[in-house]
Amino acid sequence: MSTADVVGQGPAAPVEEAKPGGFAGLYRRGMDNVKSGNLGVLPIVIGLVFIVVFFSFKATNFFTADNFVNIIIQMAGTAMLAYGVVFVLLLGEIDLSISYVAGIGAITVAELQLPGSGHEINGLLAMLVAVAVCAAIGGAQGAIVAFVGVPSFVVTLAGFMIWQGVILKVLEQPGSIIIQDRWINYTASYFFSDTAGWIIAAIITGIYAITVLGSVIGKRRAGVPIGNPGLVIAKLVGIGVAAFGTVAICNHALVPHGLPLAGVIVVFFLVILTFLAKRTTFGRHVYAVGGNAEAARRAGINIPRIRVIVFMISGFMAAAGGIILAANVNSVDLNFGGGTLLLNSIAAAVIGGVSLFGGRGEVRAAFLGALVIATVSNGLNTAGYAPGIIYMVTGAILLFAVTLDTIARRLQVRSGR
Asked: CB 399: neighbour CB atoms within 10 A?
């Protein structure tokens, strides 16, 4: 054998086993994913279906259009906070301050819109100022983590107490601030007309179809296999059914009636943050740092900068969620940011499938997790269960999700993925 044979040809490449197409291919691919721990969103979707079916029989008012709209509004604030949690968890970090950072955002808009305060400004501008303030808070906390090296658990736990103290100090005298600006209140109380709802559903479906089509064309030009065309079509149909089905149900609701703006805001940020995480260099760097920080550093990634930006995103989303939560009750009081908001926001991301170990998960996980938590809470309340039952059930779901994540991680290590 000549040198040319060794260099030019090398060892014979193993021939990949041909995989069947159609339903057989989908089934085989699904079984391979289960064995390797790559479960995706399947467990959460199955669990959500089970929850809906269960409460449909247990509570007579649960499976109604009116209650469906209520669930969307109830999940909106938590989902927004959970979006920020996803990025922090992808780094393998934690942010325990988000609930009271959300409170800072809510207080900021409440103070800036307060009539007769001497600093009253338009509600839209007040919301921009609020998210900027909270993004700066997140950036400051992230800088301590990134440049000083203090663990994020300690930094954000301190932030939890500091921002809680700020809220108590600011609201000590008035006790609460009523939000009167219509633009702020619209984030939780505005509902689109029937026609506007259908247009929004068409836009969402069209954008997703264009994105998928662009991805398919890009893969064909690069000579990359597209995969199962049936699965691509199924996803397109699924998004269309979900979008138009949601609008149809909301349009059949009596009080409140129509597609809520809060739901549209949640979907808007879901699309934007998913693009940021999956389609940008920054997003790839976040996954790389979370997967192996040392390898990412050796690859030339500026890890401190990534950490600071991620905590800024967490602060930004906390403010956005806090504004929606405040608008839902038209006020901010001394207890804002307390209760189960922090735990539900973190639980939403974890229940949806974001790994606590870093480097694995998607933004949609927060959406699905928040939907599960809101559905469980709403269903138990509708069925007349005591609040203690809600906490126990939510905790059990969280424990199951983390256990499933741990098992999946072990399976991935064994399969070499």
From this structure: 13
Cβ neighbours around 176 below 10 Å, total:
14
3-class SS of residue 333: strand
What is the spatial distance between Cα 190 and Cα 195, in angstroms, rounded to a whole number?
15
Residue (of 416, 414, 411) closest to 39 by Cα position: 411
CA distance 104 to 134: 7
Query: Are 48 and 348 in contact, with CB atoms under 8 Å apart?
Result: no
Does residue 153 contact residue 94 with C-beta atoms inside 8 Å? yes
Lowest mean pLDDT among 76-90, 319-333, 339-353, 402-416: 402-416
Q: How many whole angstroms separate alpha carbon 215 and alpha carbon 364?
A: 19
DSSP string of 208-239? HHHHHHHHHHHHHHHT-----HHHHHHHHHHH
The amino acid occupying position 192 is F
Whole-number Cα distances in Å, 364 to 23, 41, 123, 188, 224: 26, 9, 29, 21, 25
Give me 1's structure tokens: 């054998």
Longest CA–CA separation in the chain, Å:
91
Residue 37 pLDDT level (bands cut at 50, 70, 90): very low
- Residues β-bridged to residue 191: 260
- The DSSP bridge partners found for residue 143 are none
Tokens standing for residue 255? 């009080």
The tokens of 216 are what? 């398919």
Burial class (CB in 10 A: 0-12, 13-18, 19+), 194: middle
Q: What pLDDT, in 10s, does the model give residues 38-76?
A: 556 677 888 888 888 888 888 888 889 999 999 999 999
Higher pLDDT pick, 199 / 23: 199
Q: Are 89 and 155 in contact (CB under 8 A)?
A: no
Structure tokens at 254: 């009596």
pLDDT of residue 135: 97
pLDDT tens column, 227-265? 677 777 888 888 999 999 999 999 999 988 999 999 999
